[in-house]
Structures are given as structure tokens and as C-alpha cells.
Amino acid sequence: MAPFGRDAESARELLAAHGYNAETCPDLASVAANLDDQVGVILLTEEALAGDRQQLEWSLAAQPAWSDVPIVLLAARRAGHPQAIEKSRVALIASFTNAIVLERPIGSASLTSTIASAMRSRQKQFESRDRLLEVDAARRATEAGEAELRLVADALPVLIGFVDSDLRYRFANKAYEHWMYMSPDEVIGRDVREIVGKEGFAVREAAMRQALSGDEVRIELSWPHRDGRRRDAEIRYLPRRASTGAVDGFYIFALDITERREAEEELERRVAERTEALHSEMERRTSAETALRQSQKMEAVGQLTGGIAHDFNNMLTGVIGAMDIMKRRLAAGRTDDLARFMDAASSSAQRAAALTARLLAFSRRQSLDIRPIDVNTLIASLQDLLQRSVRENITLRVVPGPGLPQATTDANQLENAILNLVINARDAMPQGGALTIETSEVEVDVAYASARPEISPGRYIVVAVSDTGVGIAPDLLDRIFEPFFSTKPVGQGTGLGLSMIYGFAQQSGGQVRVHSQPGQGTSVKLFLPASTLEERAVVDDTTPAAIEGSGQAVLLVEDDESVRLLVRAVLEELRYNIVEARDAAEALPVLSSERHLDLLISDVGLPGMNGRQLAELAREHRPDLPILFVTGYAENAAIRSGFLGTNMSMITKPFAIDALAAKIAGMIPTSPVA
């Protein structure tokens, strides 16, 4: 403060008493020198202003923008012209923007009250100063953060930008120089359409609109360099939300993925090349495997035809030779020794029939009479025969499984299969040993069947024939089911036994498994489907006796003239009345006529309409007519249960007269059939 005379000390004491820190100045220059941010109020007397005010005015003008220090002016009371005096005071303080004039004499209360009011005003200025300092510090921090953020954004190998809701750029990093060939300053403030172009915007617009709706968006597109070089980009649009929650724009992040794309394409190309090479290799292998299989087939066919030719030549020699001798002796009138040659011819013919049956079994084309069979009962009925088939130095043991369900199979073929396996086991034990026939039930699950496609899941009855013989070498196991392949010495066996068993098992819906170790023995397991029926089939081993007819009418349909001649002769010997037809065309008029018929005998494999089709038409005219099918080989008749209808039966060529007579007698009713 700068009061005049004694007023200075009095004012200082008064203010000190009220808690103010007051400092006296002898003149305005001293006031100007002490003026800083700590000064709250300047107290001046009017007399002090009489000196040079310029330095004080400069100090006041140099205050910061927030500062306007209050000045309290103590004016002296004067006599004379009041208006002139007031005008002079106003002119005196015109240069001070924040001045308060108090006229002396003034009481201490008024002075302290004015000083307090001025101090409050000054305090508000200090508060404004502090706020400005805080704002300035925040601004500088923000600028520093933005500078650091831009430094980081510019250093990243990623195009980064921000676009507001009006699709105008508000931020762009240095990468725009590389991607758009524009500096960030050239990008910021401009519309997206101006930066990416009309075509570029058309590609991006849908994704940008989706981002403005609040979704994060990722797109990949081609973004070539200015010089045409390839560049692929992955662009992400991330929406930004204001404090209100509304989307006010989105961030842009673009990454150059050209190298990744090229690597992926190169990988795909290599995979395609490798796949093509693999396909070629698979085709080559398939071709080689096909050629190998064809070679194996040709070898098997060669073995098959050679074996058949050899065996049939031997059998035909027996038949033809015996017949020639009988013709010669009949011509010479010698009949005393004909029976021996007839037996030889019959034996050779029976061997030929057995060979044919084995071939059909191997090819799975034999006619099977499949029905539920009690396997334990069947094996028990064979035990005497099996015991006689082995030597005394071989111990035969039968181990029937308890409580087995029935097996669905052909009883006669199962008997032949078991007998074949027993004979094979006997021949594999020239020094004697143990032979075991065992039955059991197994469940084949899906996992086991999936690894072995030749067998289906389900329950099976297993007939295992095991020996302690010489065994089979591992390199021969894969060939044991081939036709005419045999591990026995030359002349011992045809090589069709296991082939027949394999075909029979496959045709029955089962499988054959062979386990063998050289020097320890062999076990052959025959898998047969288990039946769900509870009725036990009875195994009948009796040979039917020939039963003669009594003139019943039989329609015989057979295309082979020699077979038709022989069957007619057999039927006439059995005292049946025969009507012949060579095919279905000749038989249909007879069937549709009023002629009385007791039985239809038809070959299955007729030319044109087959025997089963003829039977269907016959039933239209004669619903109750019994029908007997005769077959040597017919693919459709392989499973009798699916081939035969009501009151139908089947007999397989070649057949004995007694078997045919029994079949006919069992089918022709005692009362005539119209």
C-alpha cells in the first residue's frame, strides 16, 4: 500500500490487526516493483498518485489474463466546486480497471470491509488462475498423449484412422502416405468418398454403415498399389460410442495381408498338386491292384478249369468206358457181368455229382434249404460216422455248448462241412493227436463287424473243429479257400473242401475263421446266424424208400430233351401219368385247360419264362396245384425259403429215383386236384 504520511502506518496496523499481511511503499515505483501474483489488494492515497504513474500502469498492464488486482483509492475531501473535483478524480483513476474510491476521513470498519470485499474478488481471480493452470496442464498432457499416440500409431505397420458419423476423417496416421499416397493432414477433415474414391466407397459402404449401427466389421479386399502391384487388405471397423451410448463414429484398422494370402495360395497350390499326385498314385495302385486281382483270378480260373477238367475226365472215363463195355457185351449176348460195370458207371457219376455240388457251394450258388437247426443234435447224430472217419490214434471229443439257440442253415450242407473239416483234421495228424468239435454262441458287435465287412453284427452259433496236427504255414493261410488249392500231398484231396465250406458259410449269412500255427495245430471256426425261433428242427438221416404212384397226372416241364426223357421214364416206372412240355409256352395251354392235373414238375432254368414265373401263372388257374421245382443251378433259387411259396418244394439234380419218388409222394394229395 502507498498511503500518504502518517496514514500509511495507521492503515498497516489496522490491517495487521485484521489478519492481513500489509507492506508500505514510499512511492508508485516501489508499488510497481512489488506487484506480483501474491498481492491481494493495492491501497493508494490520492496524494500518492500525484507522482509518475507510468511504471505502475506498465506493471498493471503486464498482469496475466486472469489477474486484475483490485485498487482501493483513499481520496481527500476538498472544498470548492464538487463537479470539478469529481471529474478530476475520474480522470485520475481512468487508467485503473478495478478501482474503488473511498473518501476520507473513513472509519476503520468501512476500510476493512472494503478491503475484505476486494480480497474476495482477488481470491476468485486466484481460483480462476488455478483452474486455468489445471486446464493448461491437462491440455499439455493431452497434447503430449496425443503426440505419443500419434508416434505409436505412425510407427505401426497398420493403417489407422477415425471417421465420424458424417463419414468424415477425424484422425489418420502416417500409414495413409503409403496406402492412399496422402499425408494425414491431407486426409483429416475430408469425406471418406474423397479419399477412397467412388469405386472404393461402393465396396466399403455396407461395412461402414454396419459399423455405424454398432457392429464390429471385418472385411478382406484387394487394394492394389498405385503402380498396379498386388496388395490384399484386411480391414476392421470398430464402432466408438459417446457418453450417451450413441455411436459417433468408427475406428479403421487396415492390415496388409498380401504375404499371408500368397502363402495360403501357395499352400493350396501345393496341396492341390499333392492331392493330384496322390490321386494319380492311387489310380496307379488301383490299376496295379486290379491287374493283380485279374491275374489272380486268371490263375484261379486256370486252376479251377484244370482241376475240373482233370477230375471230370477221370469220372467220364469211368462212365463212358463202363457203358462201352456194356454195349459190347450186350451185343455179344454176354449179360453175366454187367452189374459190375453199371456200378462203376454209377460210382463215377456220383463222384461227378459231388464235385458239381462242391463247385456250386464254392460259388455260393447251390440251392440251400435254410431253416432253424439244433446244431448240438445234428453233431450228436454224426458222432458215430465221425468216429469211424478218424484213425484209432486220434482222440475225438465233442463239446456241445449248453443252451444254444438254433442256427439258421442247411442241415445237409452243415453235415458235409463238418465231415470235411474232420477229415482235414485227421489228415493233418498222421502221428495221431486230439480232435475237438465244440459249439458256442457269440455276439458280434458293431465295432468288430465294422473292422470285418464280410460279417454283420448279431448273434452267431460257432462250430469249431480243432486239431493238434502239423498246422498251416502263415504264407499259405491266405490261399486255403482258393479252389483246388490243397496243402495235402498230390492225389490226396481235390482242394475244394474248404472252398465249399467257405461258400456255404457265406451263402448262409455267416463266415469262416481259420487260426493255425505250424507244429501246434489248426482251428476252423464256422459262424452261422443264430435263429430267433424256438421250435427245434429234427434232423432226419433216414433215406426215404421209393413210393409208387397210382396213375396220378403229372405235368413235366423240362427243356433238356435227355433230362426230360429220363425223368419221364422214372415217373412212368413209378406209375404216374405224364404230360410233357418243353417250355412255359407249351405248358400254359395245359395249365389253363380243363385237363386234370395232380402235380406240376418244372425245371427252374427254363428258356424265356423261368420255372418260378410259370408257377405264378399256374397258380392263377389252379391255386391248389402242388409244384415241384427241379434245379441243377439257379441263382434266384439259391435260398429255398425265399424262393418257394405255399405247397411248393424243390429237388436238386442229379437225384436218385427213391428221393424223387418220396418228394412226389409227399406232395400229391390223396384226393385229385382239378
TrEMBL record:
<feature type="domain" description="Histidine kinase">
    <location>
        <begin position="307"/>
        <end position="532"/>
    </location>
</feature>
<dbReference type="InterPro" id="IPR001789">
    <property type="entry name" value="Sig_transdc_resp-reg_receiver"/>
</dbReference>
<dbReference type="InterPro" id="IPR011006">
    <property type="entry name" value="CheY-like_superfamily"/>
</dbReference>
<dbReference type="InterPro" id="IPR003661">
    <property type="entry name" value="HisK_dim/P_dom"/>
</dbReference>
<feature type="modified residue" description="4-aspartylphosphate">
    <location>
        <position position="603"/>
    </location>
</feature>
<dbReference type="InterPro" id="IPR004358">
    <property type="entry name" value="Sig_transdc_His_kin-like_C"/>
</dbReference>
<dbReference type="InterPro" id="IPR013656">
    <property type="entry name" value="PAS_4"/>
</dbReference>
<feature type="domain" description="PAC">
    <location>
        <begin position="217"/>
        <end position="269"/>
    </location>
</feature>
<dbReference type="Pfam" id="PF02518">
    <property type="entry name" value="HATPase_c"/>
</dbReference>
<dbReference type="InterPro" id="IPR035965">
    <property type="entry name" value="PAS-like_dom_sf"/>
</dbReference>
<dbReference type="Pfam" id="PF00072">
    <property type="entry name" value="Response_reg"/>
</dbReference>
<dbReference type="InterPro" id="IPR036097">
    <property type="entry name" value="HisK_dim/P_sf"/>
</dbReference>
<dbReference type="InterPro" id="IPR003594">
    <property type="entry name" value="HATPase_dom"/>
</dbReference>
<dbReference type="Pfam" id="PF08448">
    <property type="entry name" value="PAS_4"/>
</dbReference>
<dbReference type="GO" id="GO:0000155">
    <property type="term" value="F:phosphorelay sensor kinase activity"/>
</dbReference>
<feature type="domain" description="Response regulatory">
    <location>
        <begin position="553"/>
        <end position="668"/>
    </location>
</feature>
<protein>
    <recommendedName>
        <fullName>histidine kinase</fullName>
        <ecNumber>2.7.13.3</ecNumber>
    </recommendedName>
</protein>
<keyword id="KW-0597">Phosphoprotein</keyword>
<dbReference type="InterPro" id="IPR036890">
    <property type="entry name" value="HATPase_C_sf"/>
</dbReference>
<dbReference type="Pfam" id="PF00512">
    <property type="entry name" value="HisKA"/>
</dbReference>
<dbReference type="InterPro" id="IPR000014">
    <property type="entry name" value="PAS"/>
</dbReference>
<feature type="domain" description="PAS">
    <location>
        <begin position="145"/>
        <end position="215"/>
    </location>
</feature>
<dbReference type="InterPro" id="IPR005467">
    <property type="entry name" value="His_kinase_dom"/>
</dbReference>
<dbReference type="InterPro" id="IPR000700">
    <property type="entry name" value="PAS-assoc_C"/>
</dbReference>
